[in-house]
């Protein structure tokens, strides 16, 4: 009789827990949907690495990882590509291109994240946190930069007042 009671409790537990697990929000799936829908990435896309035009392919998984890193580390100040501490400078492609030096390719954006400078490049900036290698590896920071640049290229409203997130 005791075995039957334990078995019934076990089955009831599974019947209660299984739907909760299956119906739980899936953040990775949501990020992947954003990447495929708004960034229009299903196959690897070439992203500009440097001003000389060298490129590297970034997959939907790479950009999804970059989006996750952006959400964890940048979203407080950069909702939808805006820049809350200085709303005149967003993460739009035009703003990234207009910086000194320009921040519109993977290597230049990574360099900025490693050592943030003011928009005109004249001095160190304290608005954006410095991202050392000990915090974010080179592949991670490149995925983050690729996400920001692809969002600036493709995401509706990225870096404007009427963003979609």
TrEMBL record:
PROSITE patterns: CYTC (PS51007). GO terms for cellular component: photosystem II. One of its GO terms (molecular function) is heme binding. InterPro entries: Cyt_c-like_dom (IPR009056), Cyt_c-like_dom_sf (IPR036909), Cytochrom_C550 (IPR029490), PsbV_cyt_c550-like (IPR016003). It is found in: Membrane. It is a peripheral membrane protein. Its cofactor is heme c. It comes from the Bacteria. Keywords: Electron transport, Heme, Iron, Membrane, Metal-binding, Photosynthesis, Photosystem II, Transport. Residues 61-152 form the Cytochrome c domain. Belongs to the cytochrome c family. PsbV subfamily. This is Photosystem II cytochrome PsbV2.
């Amino acid at each position: 009789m005791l075995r039957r009671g334990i078995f019934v409790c076990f089955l009831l537990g599974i019947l209660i827990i299984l739907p909760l697990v299956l119906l739980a929000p899936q953040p990775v799936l949501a990020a992947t949907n954003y990447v495929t829908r708004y960034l229009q990435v299903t196959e690897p896309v070439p992203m500009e690495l440097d001003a000389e035009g060298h490129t590297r392919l970034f997959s939907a998984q790479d950009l999804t990882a970059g989006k996750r890193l952006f959400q964890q580390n940048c979203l407080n100040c950069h909702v939808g590509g805006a820049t809350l501490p200085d709303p005149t400078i967003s993460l739009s492609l035009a703003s990234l291109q207009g910086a000194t030096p320009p921040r519109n390719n993977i290597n230049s954006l990574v360099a900025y994240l490693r050592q943030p400078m003011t928009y005109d490049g004249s001095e160190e900036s304290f608005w954006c946190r410095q991202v050392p290698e000990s915090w974010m590896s080179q592949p991670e920071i490149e995925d983050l930069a690729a996400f920001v640049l692809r969002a600036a290229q493709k995401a509706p409203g990225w870096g404007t007042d009427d963003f979609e997130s």
